[in-house]
Structures are given as C-alpha cells and as structure tokens.
Amino acid sequence: xxxSKITNLGKLKESGYQSKSxxxxxxxxxxxxxxSGQTVFEGIIGFDQTVLPDIERAVLSRHxxxxxGLRGQAKTRIARLLVELLxxxxxxxxxxELNDDPLKPISRFSFDLIEEFGDETPISWMHRSHRYVEKxxxxxxxxxxxxxxxxxxxxxxxxxxxxxxxxIHYGLVPRSHRSIFVxxxxxxxxxxxxxxxxxxxxxxxxxxxxxxxRLPLDIQxxxxxxxxxxxxxxxxxxxxxxxxxxxxxxxYPLTLDDAQKITRQEANIAAEQSKNIDVPDLAFRVLxxxxxxxxxxxxIDEKSGVSARLSxxxxxxxxxxxxxxxxxxxxxxxxxxxxxxWGVIPSITGKVELVYEGEQEGPYGVALQLIGEAVKxxxxxxxxxxxxxxxxxxxxxxxDIRTWFSEGNExxxxxxxxxxxxxxxxxxxxxxxxxxxxxxxxxxEQIIAQEVILHGLxxxxxxxxxLIDSKLTFSDMLSNMLDDLD
Length: 486
What we know:
Layout: H1 9-14, H2 22-36, H3 51-60, E1 65-68, H4 75-81, E2 89-93, H5 108-117, E3 123-127, E4 132-136, H6 143-146, E5 148-150, H7 152-158, E6 168-170, H8 172-175, E7 179-184, H9 191-195, H10 198-202, E8 219-225, H11 238-243, E9 246-249, H12 256-266, H13 271-276, E10 277-278, H14 281-296, H15 309-328, E11 334-335, H16 345-349, H17 356-361, H18 363-379, H19 387-391, H20 399-406, E12 411-414, H21 419-427, H22 432-439, H23 446-459, E13 463-468, E14 471-476, H24 477-485
Parallel strand pairs: 1-8, 1-9, 4-7, 7-8, 10-11
Antiparallel strand pairs: 2-3, 5-6, 12-14, 13-14
C-alpha cells in the first residue's frame, strides 16, 4: 500500500508499518548504501580516508556527533547531508507540534486525539527535508528557546491552570522530535544552557519549569565547534562533551588536487564567464597555493584558520578580473594571467586573521607576500633555485634573461593591458619563451608561464620587481641598487 493512501491510524496498522528510532533509521539506510556501493556524502571532497569513515562509524554506532574543526571545513554541509540517510517519508499525527509517531505518541495532544478518534485518528506524512533543524549558538540563546517554557497567554486563552501540560510552549529541541538537530558553534552556548542538554543526551528526556513531565524524545544531535583554544568566547563544558559519544576532527584539503576540485564545485561562475574566460591549470594551481601558504604563514593566526572560502571567492574574483580587463580592452575572450591575481587581494584580506607581525606588515602587504610565495612554489616545481647554477658552475638556463636585464633593459606590464601588447613585451625578453615551454606545454598557458618565471626570479632576488598602482616593472636588481645609491 502506498503511503499517500494511508490517512488514518487504522490503515497505518493494517499496512504493517514498523516504527524505528531516528538512529536506527540512519543506521539502516547507511548500511543499504554501503552494501550497494552508493556515494554516502555527495559533494564532500578530500575526506574519503579521514573524516567520512569516522562519521559512518558514528552513525552505525547510533552516536551523537561533534564535528570539531576550523572554519570552512564543511562541518555544516556534512550535517545537512545526513538528512539524505533518513527515510523519505514518516507518518505523524496530524496537527501534532512534536511530530508524534502515531504508533508511539509522546504529547498530550496526540494521546487525547487518539483516545477520541481511535483508528480514525488522522495522520499525515512528513518528508525528510522537514526533519532537519539547525540553530546557531549565540550567547543570548536561552533555555526557553531550546527546551521550552510556560506560555501565560496560552493559559489565559484556554483558561487553563499553569499546572496543565497544555500551557507549555515547546522549544526547538522538543519540536525536533524524530529529526536531526544541529547546534553550530557549540562553545558559544553559555555553560548554564549547555547544562540543559544533559538530560536529553543521556536519558533522552526533558524537564520544563518543574513540570512532572517526561518526553522521551528521539533526536539525532550533531554539534559543530572550532577547537577550544581558538575562541575566547567560551568552551564546551566537560560533562556535555562526555555525553557526546563521537568526536570527529575535520581538516583542510591535504592536496592541491582536492583543493581545486572543491573550488571548482563551489565557485559561482556565470555561464558567460565560463565561455569567455580561460583559466589555465597553472593559474589555478598558483591560486590554490595562496591558501596553502596562508595556513603556514607566521603572519597569520593559525588558530583562526584559513577557510576554503578564501580560494572559492578568490577564484571568482580572478575570473572577474580577467573578464573586466578583456572588456576594457574591447575584447570578449581572454586567458587569465598572473597580473589578474592582484584582483583577488580583497578575497584574501577579509579572510585571514593577522598576528602582531602581520598587522605591522598590513593586510595588503601580507596578501602580496602570499601571492609571491605561491608563484615561487609553482616556479620551483619546474625549475631549480636560480643560485644553484652559479654555485655548482653549471650552465645557467637563466643566463639570457639575466644578461638582458643586466644591460639596462626593463619590462613594464600593465594589469589591464591588452593580451597582444602584453604578450609582445614578454616575448622581447630573450630565452623567456623557451623556458616557458618547459613549464607549460599548452599554448594558452605560455603567457602565464612566462610571468611565473619572471615573478619567480624576482622572488629569488635575481630580478627587481616594483608595483606602482596597476603597473608592474621588472628590471635588474644590481642596476636598481646602483640607481638608489646615486
């Protein structure tokens, strides 16, 4: 019998429907997916060997879960994906504010309704998408918000004494009966409010304002939190942490490949941009390295973390910077180049917490350093340290470039310069195009490959690099030093 045809308690009993707790429900559906080889957490990248197995074990063990990790590590997304492990529909007593199971009611409303109508008690069907409740923990959250309180208006309207259960206004937790309940940023919840969760986690019931009331709630709790040493606003009290059966540690992407997949998946790129703006893989790798270096930088607070959102918004800005440049030059199509990376600086400065030394350097200066370190790291994937040739008396593959700049030549690149003139300026540097083919085989990557070489040499102080407004100048380091002396 189809669920849509079951409209009362009698028909539900006839159908042979068996009630399951939400944890049994999650466990059963996870087992089915694992047996069939289906993907359990769609869109979660880089956690296959670390985080996701821990979560699956916790679900199989019927545990409440604490996801512990720095910002931007997909904690909330994972919690929301657990909804997909619920049954598509479950029966509820029609009109019940606590989502009562018709076969196992818990509220006074449902008991009275079933007593009055018996097998004719009307039931409705609740989709799994409505069985997810999320609450951001803030210092102003009260026990009444989470658990409930006496409603004097309801008591006056119904002319009931405060001792009557029907005057209770239930909070978010009771209303999440038979659902997944997520509390984000758990340490921000005041300690006395955390205490109110003890009973529901351990015994599965709640107490409201001294009522002799026991509601055996059926809830799957998911908590998210940053490490305790990161926030000064509070911490998870030990007795509460002890009642959360499984703690799962999350992390940032471990490889550039995983980071790129996440960025591609999450970035909001317009169809027109995808069509007209080519993003070479070389540019993409440099972009992702910015976040990797930010997480290791001594100028940035490592306890705060560097969210994956930095790379996502930076990618969006990178594409937009190239699009704007093309339009200013009267073109529709273009290829991203290193000069466009200056357009991602607003995505960096707003997403990193600087330590004292970083504050001294300034957000803009730190962003420039991160871009420089990213280009330098990419340079070293194809070329050795430029000083190696001089120390070991080997043939210097950068000799033509060094010589050209040492003769007093320099190159000025404008961020918004047209591709044709930009490429001609780079081609004027002897030996640069030959080396670029070693770094990038694709023809579309030749300009950015030449840029990476020049920027890489400047990071090793072979060349001098100066940025004034939107003009970047490369020249000989020694010549510049002598000019400064003059």
